[in-house]
Amino acid sequence: MGIKQVDVRKVWNDKELVNKLNGLHASVTKDKMYIGKILLEIKESLEHGKFIEWIENSGLNFGIRQAQRYIKFVNEPELESRKEAKKEEFKVGKVLLKRVLTGEKLNKAEKTQLIKFIKIERERITESQAKMSAKLLDLSLAEDKL
Known about the structure:
Helix 2 packs across helix 4, helix 4 (64-75) crosses helix 5 (77-101) and helix 5 packs across helix 6. It is built from 6 helices and no strands. By secondary structure, it is mainly α. The chain has helices at 8-11, 15-45, 50-57, 64-75, 77-101, 108-144. The model has no long low-confidence stretch (mean pLDDT 83). It is flat and about 60 Å long. The longest helix is centred in the C-terminal third of the chain and has 37 residues, at 108-144.
């Protein structure tokens, strides 16, 4: 099933698509767990400090950071699941925002979800702006010292 152009209105009621995505998600989760278990066994079998060297010289198509994420998924699957759920909520929030901005009406559950998304996004942007302001101040101070 390839998707060339998504009709947002149809997606909300497309059970076939949802079932396919749920199946893929379950498959990916199992694959992550399996890869993580293998990597954890390898890490535990190597001398201290040799795992990074092994990863870098193994010929794998991913590096140490991804390997660490796989292992973390084994050690903390509920944390990784929450992260994935948050990513999905973000994607849905963006779709809902787009729908509202194009004049579509949302049902009560969608409105609630969009309100939550807007609140989180507003906090994220405010935090980002504060960090940028601090960086600008540092740049100005450094510039003044020149």
